[in-house]
Amino acid sequence: MEKKPTINDVARLSGVSKRTVSRVINGATNVGAATRERIQKVIDELGFSPDKQARGLAASRSYLIGLIYDNPDALYIDQVQRGVLSVCSEKGYELVVHPCHYRGDDFISNCINFVRRSNIDGVIVLPPASEANELAKALQNHGINYVRMASVKIDEQENIVVSDDRAALSDMARYLVSLGHKDIAIISGPKHYYSTVERLEGITHTLAELGMTVPPERIIEGKNSYESGIECARTLLIQTPRPQVIVANNDEMAAGVLKVAHEMGIDVPGELSVAGFDDNLFASRVIPSLTTVQRPVVAMAGLAAKKIVALIENKPTEDVDDYIVKPHLIIRESTRKVTK
Amino acid sequence: MEKKPTINDVARLSGVSKRTVSRVINGATNVGAATRERIQKVIDELGFSPDKQARGLAASRSYLIGLIYDNPDALYIDQVQRGVLSVCSEKGYELVVHPCHYRGDDFISNCINFVRRSNIDGVIVLPPASEANELAKALQNHGINYVRMASVKIDEQENIVVSDDRAALSDMARYLVSLGHKDIAIISGPKHYYSTVERLEGITHTLAELGMTVPPERIIEGKNSYESGIECARTLLIQTPRPQVIVANNDEMAAGVLKVAHEMGIDVPGELSVAGFDDNLFASRVIPSLTTVQRPVVAMAGLAAKKIVALIENKPTEDVDDYIVKPHLIIRESTRKVTK
DNA sequence: TCATAAAATGCCACCGGTGGCACACATGTT
DNA sequence: AACATGTGTGCCACCGGTGGCATTTTATGA
What predicted TM-score, i.e. pTM, was given to this entire model? Predict the structure, then answer.
């Protein structure tokens, strides 16, 4: 177990001061070509890489990026982590995860402390925690770099990456109408989420444009869980006439709908079309497989990571306009053209 | 944006040297009760918490725990993260995630560098990466604390947390036999995984004890994916006589079996019982819901976290024997008593 | 009451880097 | 030749803690 080489070793071996080595490490321009080369050679030979802690202590940096979330969707989290990490590791950062409860009273102080304790350089906040403006404000007040992932533009461009759920569900509405459906029911998510409202309006507004209004009894507020989907589906499917389509705010609830339809002997998609949102792991596996919307989560997370790094390193945000990604429709078996 | 208080602030305000404050922070015993109280009060008032980087630099510690894995199962990862974090945060550590490719040639150096760069205090390695003994050896050589999560005891007790898959599948075998089944087929996982072998032997050995041998053509090596499950199921279900039960190495493949059975018009569980392993998110949602095995992943991860902290802090491992957890059977709709 | 041990506290160097500034030297300008 | 300018490099303090040891205070025993 050899000890890790330090900047002093490099300095000694290459016969310069550690300040100059530091310059080479950090790619400063004012180092003589010959000197730089010599130092670099020693660095390579030693396999030296600067200690992040020491570096951080001196420069008030940690090379740590925090991921704050209160999201039960493990798949989503996993994709985000991978997306962020692909950028992080390339830029020399590590990812520190911080799940939390964004309804607890200490939510904000908890997050702030998390950042403070470890001198996290910047955080990426995931929905739904990202919808908490108080958190954003607190981060700002503490001078903490952050980027939010969300479904609506609720912040400056540098601080947000948006998934255009509204547009996606607008597409969904158009698609369903193109199948000949006229009677569409909706299981929305909890209304206090921006994303829910966006998705809901994405459908209803587009339908309205197409000359269809969705009557209030055809819109039910679900809780995004499978169980809630079951409950809402029961309410909708006993209505007469029975709706031709149920669009759920996520795949969890759509799966619940499928379950209830199966129980009630309603054929999907023969008698009822069902659509979800997320493209969950099992969206393609349920029977019938689920028509849904897929968000490019990995790409979105990568984008968020690029933004946070840009913020941290105070670099001009090259593609400042590039902060919106559009989810796309995935058409499977659970939706079908109206036959009769 | 107020600046973060430092140990110097605390020292000044409470009229002692920073060394004494340091003692209070670290719970040293040799501090006068009155002094300690006074200092603690100042700490509380200021909301001071020691800077991990400075602390780490001085004490060669980072208060960072790394999580190394190459596992596609997002749910599993998520549970592990939560389990580890519940302990971490309590003990003042943060969790740094490090997914990797444990078949790449640079796998080991990649992991070592990860630890070195950030002075990670210790790592928890998840299966299947945890099965790589070369990694364990490398970690050891570099003096890096590690704990592996695995399905077999392949390391010292301090360095491993084991899920007793063998026992669980032994239970499964007994359960299936108790239902009256005599003709059991198995879709195993890739044989080069310890866990696969354990699970396979868990069944076959127990069946052997009960006087049943599983003929070779009834054991197929799958690849743990849904698609692979489908493929293997096709092979098994055209055999005559058709097996009464298919036990798959995981729920993914079991779901594949369900799919094929459905396609072939074979009633599950009427004509075929199916069992999986993992208790995936959708194990309870597929139709019929899946009999499977649930590992107490969160608890296991918490245990691993406790072990790694004990290793880091060089504390006597209190419950040194407590390194095995036993998964348990979850019986659902996909298995049923033989009727005819 | 005083020597002596034990407990409480302080001092200073150090961990491994970076920032600010001084300085040496080469070059360009008048 | 004298001076400004720019480039390359080194020195030293400092970031916020901890370790080792010296020193002071308090408790203990004879």
Answer: 0.89
